[in-house]
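User: Hey, my collaborator sent me this sequence without any context and asked if I could get a structure. I don't really work with proteins. Can you help?
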Amino acid sequence: MRTPLALTAGALALAGLTACSSTSGGGDTAAQTSGKPGKITVAASDTDCKVSTAALPAGTSTFSVTNGGSKVTEFYVYAAGDRVMGEVENIVPGLTREVIVELPAGAYEAACKPGMIGKGIRNPLKVSGEAAPLSDDAKLAQAAKDYERYVKSQTDALLVKSQEFVDAVKAGDIDKAKALYPVARTYWERIEPVAESFGDLDPAIDAREDAVEPGAEWTGFHKIEKDLWQAKDISKDGPLADKLMADIKKIVERATTEKIQPLKLATGAKALLDEVATKKITGEEDRYSHTDLWDFAANLEGSKGAIAALRPVLTERAPDLVKTLDEKFPAAEEALGKHRSGDGWKLHTELSKADLKELSDAINALAEPISKVAAVVAQ
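Assistant: No problem. I've predicted the 3D structure and written it out in structure-token form, which is a compact way to encode the shape of the chain:
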């Protein structure tokens, strides 16, 4: 889950990376590929979320979200049960960012989340008519199936490693639980865009303390992380561990039965890099354990997995983009690889400002072409 701490000095120092996803990046600014007469503009502020229309034709639509407020905001398109159909996160004040969403006929809600917490300021969206789904294209359908297999492989490992982590917590074995914490989270972070699609389960598993709604119970990985590294006491965390495992089982069941839209592969690949840009680089995500680089690596791997599934389509439609991606992924992996430590990674606190700058530059160089993939898929 994203938190207001994304708007730190470190995050602002990476404004170049965030801008890759803005209108200046060129990747998300392809409303013409959606077949729509124009973009749907969203004027977000600390108290409002003004969407330029409440009625849309079925198919793909581009939402252009401008944050005119003082808080970092997010924008979501929700189906029933708060199922996420499309999202764009960490929109800092003054920035415009875009997202392309595929919507069949039905009732939806558009939501802005100033401060990136809570249910958000919501507006009804009615989608009517018929449009051939992108998955009617045989290669896009195959890409979705290939990615679903990738998700299955990751969720299988997530179940195993999370159970090992939970067992260590319940046994009171702090050292073993600490060692397993970043390993279990690796499989979660690789598929996080899929996991985030399922309403309240994602925050139950992955919320930071300051992202929990007032009056709600804080549960999940990060609550146990705090107890392990800060309180150094997990003697009362048995029920918390059981709930974490139960929630993971629920989300794995949903993720492995979900039919993934081809467009979600593209937007998910970009969202994973946004994860790195807005949290992992600053050290905000794993603030007690400082194991952010495990998440960093997992997000990069997850993005690569989504793009790999789309590769046949991209090769056919945008060969120059494929060539660029084939250059930028290894460069980002090389920059990260310098910080290997045994079978894992150095702690975030062991990296210098220069190290973090080098990593952010490599991700910046990759994020720009990644931001163009959704428009190619939506053609």
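In plain terms: Confidence is low (pLDDT under 50) at residues 1-37. You can pass these tokens on to your collaborator as they are.
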